[in-house]
DNA sequence: CTCCAGGGAGCCT
DNA sequence: AGGCTCCATGGA
């Protein structure tokens, strides 16, 4: 096992690992101890979090002065990328739109960063996210890893990697339904087959202009505009992407009604222009804040 | 019992 | 293009 630490002083802006990994951005990090993903807002600030990237197990936890890591490889550069530690958070916030709701969200979870999950795992997890509660999306990914991942021995435990496209492409719809994927089972199988065969892959998406990248993403089965935005934002670093789920639709109706345009593409464009640069960052703060029970502060006069 | 969860595909005009 | 309807599963 290799170990190390990334001093917080080396990171531009604040860091909050718990807010980053428990804000519904990623279903590919979990707690190896205790096994629960806290949705109750209680402190998990010093807990270890685990992921598997390219057959390497990586654990991280935040201390008062650093982000500690341990893993099967020298994980420092991987952790910096995966947790968005390169993002200059002060600059991101400084450039963003500010209003009472956005300020409250940012103040509540200062240090929340946009993750960069591996493309295929992110794609599969968000296909699974359709009409599904956060806790159960985690359970689906855990079952997929256990059934279709590669076992890795780490710290005396057996950890399963995120499945390869070919592994899920070889599964049948019935196999995946047995893992409680429901009607998402054929979507996952067919999308995995597209990636495995080379018909459509990350290479066809990454680097394209945002709106074209999103449109291309929807060629995957089980991927509409919302899931496309999630993958662009949480895997490929398209910080302009603003996933418009039911929470954000409600938020727009309640707080930004002028941005409501009926069609997803048009509402998205209006909302992105309203939020300003790196709109996806602000969207993610709003999503986590609203879903955790936060509300717009009453104007004080 | 009903309703809903970080939606999307298929089919209809 | 835009508007239905259906789709699994489990917890409240």
TrEMBL record:
Its EC number is 4.2.99.18. Residues 128-291 form the HhH-GPD domain. The keyword Cell wall biogenesis/degradation does not apply. GO terms for molecular function: class I DNA-(apurinic or apyrimidinic site) endonuclease activity; damaged DNA binding; oxidized purine nucleobase lesion DNA N-glycosylase activity. Pfam families: HhH-GPD, OGG_N. One of its GO terms (biological process) is base-excision repair. It catalyses: 2'-deoxyribonucleotide-(2'-deoxyribose 5'-phosphate)-2'-deoxyribonucleotide-DNA = a 3'-end 2'-deoxyribonucleotide-(2,3-dehydro-2,3-deoxyribose 5'-phosphate)-DNA + a 5'-end 5'-phospho-2'-deoxyribonucleoside-DNA + H(+). The keyword Lyase applies. It comes from the Archaea. Keywords: DNA damage, DNA repair, Glycosidase, Hydrolase, Lyase, Multifunctional enzyme. Belongs to the type-1 OGG1 family. This is DNA-(apurinic or apyrimidinic site) lyase. It comes from Halobacterium salinarum. The lineage of its organism: Archaea, Methanobacteriati, Methanobacteriota, Stenosarchaea group, Halobacteria.
């Amino acid at each position: 096992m290799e170990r190390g630490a990334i001093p917080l002083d080396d990171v531009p802006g604040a860091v909050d690992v718990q807010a980053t990994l428990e804000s519904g951005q990623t279903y590919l990090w979990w707690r190896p101890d205790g096994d629960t993903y806290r949705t109750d807002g209680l402190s998990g600030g010093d807990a270890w979090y685990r992921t598997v990237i390219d057959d390497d197990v990586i654990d991280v936890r935040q201390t008062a002065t650093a982000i500690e890591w341990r893993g099967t490889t020298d994980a420092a550069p991987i952790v910096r990328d995966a947790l968005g530690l390169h993002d200059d958070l002060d600059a991101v916030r400084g450039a963003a739109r500010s209003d009472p709701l956005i300020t409250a969200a940012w103040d509540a979870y200062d240090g929340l960063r946009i993750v960069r999950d591996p493309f295929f795992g992110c794609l599969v997890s968000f296909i699974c996210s359709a009409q599904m509660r956060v806790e159960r999306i985690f359970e689906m990914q855990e079952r997929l890893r256990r059934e279709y991942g590669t076992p890795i021995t780490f710290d005396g435990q057996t950890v399963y990697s995120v499945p390869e496209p070919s592994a899920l492409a070889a599964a049948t719809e019935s196999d995946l339904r047995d893992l409680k994927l429901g009607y998402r089972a054929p979507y996952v199988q067919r999308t995995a087959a597209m990636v495995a065969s080379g018909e459509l892959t990350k290479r066809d998406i990454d680097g394209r202009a945002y709106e074209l990248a999103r449109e291309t993403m929807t060629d995957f089965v089980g991927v509409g505009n919302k899931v496309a935005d999630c993958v662009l934002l949480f895997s490929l670093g398209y910080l302009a992407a603003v996933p418009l789920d039911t929470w954000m639709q409600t938020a727009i109706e309640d707080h930004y009604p002028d941005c409501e345009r009926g069609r997803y593409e048009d509402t998205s464009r209006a909302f992105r222009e309203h939020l300003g640069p790196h709109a996806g960052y602000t969207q993610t703060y709003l999503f986590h804040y609203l879903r955790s029970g936060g509300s717009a502060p009453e104007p004080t006069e």
